[in-house]
Design a protein that fits this description.
The complex is a heterodimer. In chain A, a hairpin with a 2-residue loop joins strand 4 and strand 5. By secondary structure, chain A is an alpha/beta fold. In chain A, 37% of the residues lie in helices and 25% in strands. In chain A, helix 3 packs across helix 4. Chain A contains nine helices and ten strands. Chain A has a domain of 67 residues. By secondary structure, chain B is an alpha/beta fold. In chain B, strands 1, 2, 3 and 4 form a four-stranded mixed beta sheet that branches. In chain B, helix 5 packs parallel to helix 9, helix 6 packs parallel to helix 9 and helix 11 runs antiparallel to helix 12. Classes of the chains: A alpha/beta, B alpha/beta.
Chain lengths: 254, 378
């Protein structure tokens, strides 16, 4: 049901070796949310995402998917939880030795029993959804950055996940492509009912698509504000949040 | 063009004001007046109460002027002399303000520390321990992946295996042929010179036959594959690490060890014994060329002497060694690739380290195998 808690991040503390990047981060992502994790560069946005998708083990804390723990689960349970979400990486992370259609097909080949002809149809559908029909046999090195992002999205959607993660989706895209990607994200949420978590510092995207958010601060190393980003822009009293959401112009400009 | 020569003149007014007069083109590419000259002129001017600038005759400037001005400002503040910047060009004033707008962050500057010998030695031991743990962990993961493969549960694409088989098998044939042919040739040549002294030329066939089949073909092919394929494995996996491709596999719930390392290990472990058998033939062919052309041996004679002296045991030891080398080269290449950092330099280091690790482990393994064979009388 829409509005129910989908992902709960509980008391998460992250770091590398002995350096703590973030401490005591707690938030809830509800079903159907477009949830934004924002903050200045170096505030640990991407680290939270890496921890939520099972790449960075936390120092303490837990990530729960509909009550199922990610980090205290057995490897098998962790694997089945990880199949419930798709991730679009900042660099797209397409497998460079595979064509676009093979990239999208791989998750299907690994985790479904459907035949090759059905897989082929699903792959064409997904590539069509992101506007890449006809590029099935291209290798990632042969297409532009924006197309790679979209192909990465098609791959992330391959198994029809109910959660999609986006790491800096508009990084390296021109304004028009970035806007189209934002619209695609909204369409996906509305039509598939997916829960979407976006890590970004792109102001236009944050205000255009987000309906819930957390704001991370690199100095205090934790969440300093949370809520709908448009409401934060109007109502926040924290100068760090206001500066961020107004591109440093301050209270009078919002 | 003396008119544009950058010049510095200090003038002390009767009210103890120091006028710093800058003229000409103050650019880095010009020969700028050095700081000692400023100090020298400053000393000879006597005590001053404030510093002002006169840049009427300044016709051009770049960072060269700004660094010089920063030096003067610092010198002024050290002597506690007030300084008026309004005589400077507007742009230079703005750049100076910008350069000092954000004060240096405390605690970020890297101090040049001289570590003591004990500290260095300790650090090296800890690093060595960690790297051994990393290697053991990797071997453990590979072992579990092999168990899953045996149970038919390992996830990888058979097309990847076929492609790697082709890359490290058929495509390696030309270089394996050339190098092993020449090694056989060299071995026969050196042997011939000595053996001819005793009229025992025919034993060149035995020397080359046993030498190649028992050890040389496997070692030479192993080293070739370390440089050719082991390095490629490390570079491929390292680049995949940089491009987040390995992360993408992990979040799909796929073990990169099964998906990427297993097919490469299998391919090399299958292909190395075959390549080494082929290398045996090439080496013996090289020996035969020397035997027939230089030593005037009969072709059949050479062939028969070879058949007589090479035992099946020799061939088996060679093939077994080659399989071990194949595993070691693939393991080293994949290990270094998976451990690679996320930068271009790190991929380069991973590749180098893969080749070094492969070659060292080949030689050590050969020593162990030889000792064991001696012990077991094989």
């Amino acid at each position: 049901m829409k509005g129910e808690p989908h992902i709960i991040v509980e008391d998460l503390t992250l770091g590398y070796d002995s350096t703590v990047i973030l401490h005591d981060v707690t938030f809830t992502v509800n079903k159907g949310d477009i949830f934004i994790i924002m903050g200045a560069s170096g505030s640990g946005k991407s680290s939270i995402l890496r921890s939520m998708v099972g790449l960075l083990p936390p120092i303490k804390g837990e990530v729960l998917y509909e009550g199922l723990s990610l980090w205290s689960a057995t490897p098998e349970e962790q694997k089945s939880t990880m199949q419930r979400f798709g991730v679009l990486y900042q660099s797209s992370a397409l497998w460079s030795s595979l064509t676009l259609s093979e990239n999208v097909a791989l998750p299907l080949q690994l985790y479904t029993d459907v035949g090759e002809d059905v897989i082929k149809e699903v792959v064409s559908l997904k590539l069509g959804l992101v506007g890449l029909a006809g590029f099935e046999d291209y290798y990632p090195s042969e297409i532009s950055g924006g197309m790679k992002k979209r192909a990465g999205l098609a791959r992330a959607m391959a198994l029809d996940p109910d959660i999609l993660f986006f790491d800096e989706p508009s990084a390296g895209l021109d304004p028009v492509s970035a806007h189209l990607l934002d619209e695609l994200i909204i369409t996906l949420r509305n039509s598939l009912g997916a829960t979407i978590v976006v890590v970004t510092h792109e102001l236009a995207s944050i205000l255009a698509i987000g309906n819930n958010s957390v704001f991370l601060d690199p100095v205090s190393k934790t969440i300093i504000a949370a809520g709908n980003p448009r409401k934060l822009l109007e109502e926040s009293k924290d100068p760090r949040v206001i500066d961020f959401l107004t591109r440093g112009k301050g209270v009078q400009e919002r | 063009m003396t008119i544009n020569k950058p010049e510095l003149n200090l003038l002390r007014l009767p009210d103890a004001t120091l006028v710093v007069r800058l003229s000409g083109v103050w650019k880095l590419s010009r020969h700028l007046p050095d700081r000692e000259e400023f100090q020298h002129q400053m000393k000879s001017a006597g005590p001053v109460s404030r510093i002002v600038f006169d840049t009427q005759a300044l016709t051009g400037w770049d960072s060269g002027l700004i660094t010089f001005l920063k030096y003067i400002i610092e010198a002024g503040s050290e002597l506690d002399v007030p300084l008026q910047k309004d005589g400077l060009p507007q742009g230079a004033q703005e750049i100076l303000a910008l350069a000092s707008a954000v004060p240096e962050k405390q605690g970020v500057r890297r101090e040049a520390t001289q570590a003591s010998f004990l500290e260095k030695a300790g650090g090296a031991v800890i690093a060595l321990w960690r790297s051994q743990l990393g290697i053991l962990g990797f071997i453990g993961e590979v072992f579990f992946a092999l168990v899953r493969l045996a149970a038919g549960k390992a996830q990888f694409r058979s097309s990847d295996l076929l492609l790697t088989l082709q890359e490290c098998g058929a495509q390696a044939l030309p270089i394996v042929s050339l190098v092993n042919l020449l090694v056989g040739l060299i071995l026969a040549f050196i042997g011939a010179i000595q053996l001819r002294l005793f009229g025992a030329q025919i034993y060149v066939a035995s020397l080359v036959g046993i030498g190649m089949t028992r050890a040389l073909a496997a070692i030479v092919t192993g080293v070739i594959m370390a440089g050719r394929t082991g390095a490629a494995f490390a570079a491929q996996l390292g680049t995949m690490q940089v491009n987040e491709e390995i992360d993408a596999l992990r979040t799909l719930g796929v073990s990169p060890i099964e998906f990427l390392v297993l097919p490469r290990m299998l391919a090399l472990a299958i292909m190395m014994p075959l390549l080494s058998l082929y290398a045996d033939l090439m080496g013996m062919l090289g020996g035969m060329i020397i035997g027939v052309t230089m030593l005037n041996l009969n072709l059949m004679e050479y062939y028969q002497k070879t058949c007589e002296s090479v035992r099946l045991n020799d061939v088996c030891v060679g093939v077994f060694s080659a399989a071990v080398f194949g595993l070691l080269v693939a393991l080293a290449g994949c290990l270094r690739g998976m451990q690679s950092g996320r930068s271009a330099a790190a991929v380069g280091e991973a590749t180098t380290s893969a080749v070094v690790t492969s070659i060292v482990s080949i030689v050590v393994a050969m020593a162990v195998i030889t000792a064991l064979c001696d012990l077991l009388n094989i």
